[in-house]
Amino acid sequence: RAKSAGSGLFARYDPQMHSGLVERLQLGADLRRALDGDANELQLHYQPTIELRTGDIVGFEALVRWRHPVRGMISPVDFIPLAESTGLIRPLGRWVLAEASRQAVAWGFDQPGRALTMAVNVSGVQFDQPDLPQIVASVLAETGLPPDRLCLEMTESVLMTDTEENLAVLLSLKDIGVKLAIDDFGTGYSSLAYLRRFPVDTLKIDRSFVERLTGAAPDAALARTIVQLGQSLGMATVAEGIEQYAQFLALRRMGCDLAQGYYFSRPLPAGEAGRLLRDPAAIAA
Ligand code: C2E
Ligand code: MG
Ligand code: MG
Ligand code: MG
């Protein structure tokens, strides 16, 4: 960048750029330490998934949290990209998988007759590693979670970039028997043709389409289209980010299968999520 600016070898000093770089390096070192250490800086919170027809809890999504000793809570929106650019997503991703699977077994997801699913977010960068299926298989073996109790969430970009390689990885994951979901569905550019080729079980309708159901200029067309798309492809649909009763009703009427959102529950620390599972009357639906 310095060269293209025509200023020779050295970049003009930009305090903002400098502090940004130093900050990222420092934060990367901190994240490495958090992963190695045993101070429990990294934790998972769990947000329930609700069956719209019955109001039952049918599972949880694990969402990573980083309690930095100096900066306090750092959002995954801020540190997942850092983990991706530093390669730390690999150990972090494995840790999330193992911790969520261990928790699922502790909650009895492995018991026959309890049809509960633990969903884990998997970064596109993790799909660049062809050994992702082996990692998943070894975590399942270590924790004893049956494969069909685990759902891996990925974004549409996994379908659209390195398509052939990622398709092979997804087919191996299906062979293991885990469920696959497309997160934030509708925000990317995946075509119908792609969607058909990939062994996807679930579409998660992005929160922006749920938001549009209510508000100043209500619009139900996109949410309805995704629900119908899921139905015609034999995929379950999950609405993300339900905050209002009216959104809950609208999606249930459309035939959407499942939902998550603050209306039901925020993501909770393991202890509180476990209490909710034992006493689901606390759920708004
Ligand atoms: P996501 O997988 O789409 O997760 C949903 C996000 O929406 C979560 O934010 C959740 O707390 C939030 N949310 C849930 N219900 C509502 C609602 O009713 N209203 C609003 N406004 N928000 C709601 P969070 O936990 O900050 O995570 C953000 C993103 O970070 C996730 O989006 C996911 O892409 C990523 N992420 C989180 N944990 C992990 C992880 O373990 N691994 C990877 N690779 N990514 C993760
Ligand atoms: Mg997700
Ligand atoms: Mg999402
Ligand atoms: Mg989303």
UniProtKB/TrEMBL annotation:
Residues 24-281 form the EAL domain. The keyword Membrane applies. The keyword Cell inner membrane does not apply. Keywords: Membrane, Transmembrane, Transmembrane helix. This is Uncharacterized protein. It comes from Dactylosporangium sucinum. The chain holds residues 628 to 912 of 912 of the full protein.
